[in-house]
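can u do me a favor
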């Protein structure tokens, strides 16, 4: 398999020398590659040169939580090192030839607590009470649709003026990929939209037009409005965005027992796997639902004859 007289440190040194002299690799690259290879060697108890494909996959899997660029660099390093080892005759095979980067660690979406959402709406209400002007009516309508219906920022700002009909508790939206979906609307959202729409010119194309122009409110401006409200509500601005409110809509619905398939439809996710990321906030609730609602919950257990209570 390998030249037993060659140690990992010596092989790494020769590889780094080759990168510097033949490929003119940058100093930072040489340092990073050397560090990566020493880490693999240490993890394998000095067995870098004798590592098999499974050893390398296992080590890479442990790096999945790093930034994608870092994982890609480590993968490239391993591929180049073992190709060099094969060409130098240190190995009769190349264990990194079919090596793939591990799937990136799934990052949980940012969300807000119920208390934080309550403070946001209280701040919006207080602002409207102080100054019942169109700008504040618009803000309330935007917030009700972001958190109350989980709209994407682009979907929200580009709503046609008459997309929401009085007394009609839903919108039919065309979202990503041109797919249509039905989005329920709360009574609060309907009332907020009606109060705001009274100040939108009838000839306006959009429900949230942009300052007398033919266009609509921009996503950037929506982002700014949400963060400004966060400052008033005592919610750190860096934790706030229109998309965070969409996540809050999803997590709070799921936490209160909403059906995952229904949530998928409301959010407009093509794959339910995308929706399932929100289950991290509702694992306890889902277990309780099974123990309380499943037909077997009140039947005697064949193991101990008692009813199962979780």
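np, heres the sequence
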């Amino acid at each position: 398999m390998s030249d037993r007289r060659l140690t990992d440190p010596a092989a790494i040194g020769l590889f780094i020398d080759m990168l510097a002299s033949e490929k003119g690799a940058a100093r930072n690259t040489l340092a990073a590659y050397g560090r990566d290879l020493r880490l693999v060697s240490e993890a394998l108890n000095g067995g870098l040169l004798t590592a098999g494909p499974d050893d390398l996959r296992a080590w890479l899997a442990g790096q999945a939580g790093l930034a994608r660029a870092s994982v890609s660099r480590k993968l490239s390093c391993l591929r180049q090192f073992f190709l060099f080892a094969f060409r130098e005759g240190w190995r009769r095979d190349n264990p990194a030839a079919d090596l793939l980067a591990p799937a990136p660690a799934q990052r949980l979406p940012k969300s807000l607590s119920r208390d934080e959402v309550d403070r946001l709406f209280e701040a919006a209400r207080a602002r409207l009470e102080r100054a019942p002007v169109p700008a504040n009516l618009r803000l309330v309508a935007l917030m009700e649709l972001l958190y109350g219906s989980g709209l994407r920022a682009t979907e929200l700002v580009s709503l046609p003026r008459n997309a929401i009909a009085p007394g009609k508790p839903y919108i039919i939206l065309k979202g990503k990929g041109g797919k249509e979906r039905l989005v329920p609307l709360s009574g609060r959202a309907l009332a907020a939209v009606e109060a705001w729409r009274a100040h939108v010119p009838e000839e306006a194309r959009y429900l949230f037009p942009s300052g007398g122009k033919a266009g609509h409110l921009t996503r950037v401006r929506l982002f700014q409005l949400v963060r400004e409200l966060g400052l008033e509500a005592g919610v750190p601005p860096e934790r706030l965005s229109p998309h965070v409110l969409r996540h809050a809509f999803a997590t709070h619905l799921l936490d209160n027992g909403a059906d995952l398939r229904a949530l998928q439809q409301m959010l407009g996710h093509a794959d339910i796997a995308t929706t399932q990321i929100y289950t991290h906030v509702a694992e306890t609730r889902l277990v309780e639902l099974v123990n309380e609602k499943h037909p077997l919950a009140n039947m005697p257990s064949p193991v101990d004859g008692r009813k199962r209570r979780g």
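Confidence is low (pLDDT under 50) at residues 306-310. hope that helps!!
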